[in-house]
Amino acid sequence: MQSGSSEGATMCLAIPGKIVEIQEKSCMRMGRIDYGGITREACLEYIPDPRIGEYVMVHVGFAISKVDAEEAARTYQYLAEMNQLEEIAAPEPPPETAP
Hints:
Strand order of the largest sheet: 3-2-1-4-5
Number of strands: 5
Distance between the termini: 30 Å
Helix content: 10-25%
Radius of gyration: 14 Å
Mean pLDDT: 83
Shape: globular
């Protein structure tokens, strides 16, 4: 998510989501993350011992920390107040295929 000012500066935020699936892909631990009904794939390699049902903060496709459910709810509330949730609802790009 990016929020720009009149000077063109942008800021990228991490978004909380709930781990709903964990799998191995190309020797990497990946997960399906639920962002309030919309799921996206994210890398879980930077999270120690991720478990289904836990909440993580995701930044550009990488889970970077764990958070509790209350913190996730507070973050969603702040993002909603700033009208910054529309990017989550955008269609997920198709997976890249190797030539």
